Amino acid sequence: MSGLVSGLDGNCVRCGRKLKDIKSIERGFGKTCYKKYLKETEERMKKNQISVFDLRGLKNDR
Ligand SMILES: [Zn+2]
Asked: What is the full DSSP assignment across 15-55?
């Protein structure tokens, strides 16, 4: 632990690889994994595979 970023361990939450740059660490994803994550989320939304319960946790518009 470097102690540079508190609360984050500096590993990609998707593949577990060590993250090098601060932006990736803040995201919790490596650049490639973040793109994949966004694409997957988008596709899941389109297919309506996210349940109402998941959306309730993400959106607070009501
Ligand atoms: Zn990754």
From this structure: T-PBP-SHHHHHHTS-HHHHHHHHHHHHHHHHTT-S-HHHH
Rounded CA-CA distance 33/40 in Å is 10
CA of 12 to the centre of ligand 1 (A): 5
* Residue at 4: amino acid letter: L
pTM: 0.59
* Cα 17 to averaged position of ligand 1 atoms, centre (Å): 6
Per residue in 9-44, pLDDT (tens digit) is: 789 999 999 999 999 999 999 999 999 999 999 998
